[in-house]
Amino acid sequence: MNTIARESVKQMFERLGDSLITLVAGDLDEERVVEEVVIQASDEPVGLARDAVVFGVGTGGDSAEVCGLLRKVGAAGASALILRAPVATDDAVTAAVIESRVPLLAFVEGAPWMYLADMIRPARTRREEDSFVTEASLSADLNLFKVANSLSEILDSPVTIEDLRSRVMAFSADQERGDDARKASVLGQQVPHHLGAEMVRLGVFQRLYSSSRPIHVEPLPSGVRARVAMQIRAGSALLGSIWAIAGDEPLSEAQEEAMIQAAHTAAGAILQGRVAADAVQRMRTATVAALIGGGQPARAAAGKVHRARVRGGCVIAARIRSSDRAGAEFDSVAGAERLASSLVMYLRAECATAVAAVFNDTIYAVMLHTTDFCADVRSVQRLIRSFVERRGTGLDGLSVGIGNAVSDPGDLDRSREDAELVLRVLDMPGTAREPDLQVATRDDVHGLSLVLRLSDIAASDPVCAGGPLARLEAYDLEHQSNLVETLDCWLQQFGDVTSTADSLHVHKNTLRYRLRRIEEVSGVALDDPEERFELMLEFRVRQSLGDSHGPDLAMRALTRA
Fold first, then answer.
1. Which residue from 140, 132, 171, 174 is spatially nearest to 157, judged by alpha carbons?
2. Helix (H) or strand (E) holding 238
3. Which of 129, 158, 132, 169 minimizes the C-alpha distance to 271?
4. SS3 per residue for 372-391
5. In angstroms, how far is CA 507 from the centroid of its own chain?
6. Of the candidates 107, 27, 12, the residue with the CA atom closest to the CA atom of residue 59
7. Contact, 222 vs 238, CB < 8 A?
8. For 374-424, what is each residue's pLDDT tens digit?
9. Which of 236, 335, 409, 458 could anchor a disulfide with 302, C-beta 3.0 to 4.6 Å?
């Protein structure tokens, strides 16, 4: 028998997101739970409302009325008050919210109250393991197809339901009666671009979205048969449209009313689907956050993702390189979300437990090891390289870091730190042009990752600001010389006087003079291998800190070392 945790007002709001409700005033309390939904009119006495979400039906436009209802439901112990938008807000309402200790929320115009009630009530009985597929999202999709099929029977014509971008969300089952345009739209789940452009040119969408009743669309010059269309709207928000192939006779009054009612029903289903999608995304993000945070929360989250015993896993971090973000295909939160969805779908072909989410500009994916899947980092690397290759040139600026695998989900934070360190290395100048390092493991960048860790220490320790190179820099600045550049080049040429002089375009005797001055000013002995190593290391650390001694210094030094 499962014990169901009660949901707080704050958890309810976070689950629903802002698709249906928005916070007008007050604070959302983690301690106030939601026990039930109560519908309350302002002129009626308040009944049992302890720990209830109260729907103030018919209230919202008058400040005094809102204040009165807030005080009533507050005295009854309500958890929250929801009114239809727009809600009158002024100092008096704000004061009433504070006095009653009841947060005030607004419910989107046009959406039925019953849809909101359905979205709140099931939260008390939903199973925790339903993290990625909710009944709400499934029922919303099914409702749209039911609307399409029911309307198709009434109109005796094929029907499609489309969003504002002309993407097909649902369609009736009578495909054989459709014309080529309808068949192409259903198969491609998108109205062909040239047809959409033609309808824009003819002003079809302008007529559609300005009419409260179905419109008739004449056959298009491209051979598309006539259509009847009805906008889908929730209050002032346009959500999409319903399309049907027109028959020989105009729609009857009953058919028009059926189409209008179908649009209302579709609006509710679309809103329900949006809320469900928001909830799925929020739960997925919370799960990934718990996993990559490590510790007991990661173990608990792993148990929700996979009921069988989880034997550790690895973390993958990906983002567009900072130098390549301008004009990048995924230079936006929505783009990153799409990339994360594509990546996790690809990974699940091999690892059914793969999950991913976006935090700021970074995608984090977790592949958990179970009895059905356990792969080393090289196998994961090959899998992700295959994904990048399949996506093509749109991912040229993508960097992917793969953390080392761990044997305990509680240690996934260590794998995340590995992946993040790899990404930092890949963002260093020079690595961006190394194609083999687009998808890298900790071993692939081991040397540079050590330098990066040293640079972190140097950046936080003011003592590290001194040393031989600092003395040479001060000398160069005072005497307009170039001893630092000379030393850098000489170290890269492994002390070869001829090749160093050629690289600097100076005579060998000039180079020998500079080397003597370097020893005098810096106090180092260039014939001592330990001191040469220390100088090379300092150059690398400075480069990783963003020093200006040449953009590829660290990579060149490491390559030749």
1. 174
2. strand 237-245
3. 169
4. CCCCCHHHHHHHHHHHHHHH
5. 58
6. 107
7. no
8. 778 888 999 888 888 877 656 667 889 999 999 999 999 999 999 998 988
9. 409
Residues in the chain: 561
Judge whether 32 and 79 are in contact, CB under 8 Å. yes
Helix and strand tally (H, E) in the chain? 20, 15
Locate 310 and state its tokens: 């989880």
3-state secondary structure 442-457: CHHHHHHHHHHHHHHH
Residue 343 to residue 19: CA distance in whole angstroms: 26
Where are the domains positioned within the chain? 9-124, 135-273, 294-447, 461-560
Answer whether CATH 3.40.1390.20 is correct for domain 9-124: yes
Q: Which residues pair with 267 in a beta bridge?
A: none
Tell me the three state secondary structure of residue 440. Answer: strand
Q: For residue range 208-240, what is the model confidence (pLDDT) as tens digits?
A: 999 999 999 999 877 789 999 999 998 778 999
Q: Please name the helix (run of DSSP H) or strand (run of DSSP E) that holds residue 341, with its range, or none.
A: helix 333-348
Give me 224's structure tokens: 């598309």
Beta strands in 41-112 (DSSP E): 52-56, 80-84, 104-107
The answer to whether residues 44 and 30 touch, using CB atoms and an 8 Å cutoff, is no
Residue linked to tokens 């006779």: 249
Specify whether the CB–CB gap between 276 and 142 falls below 8 A. no
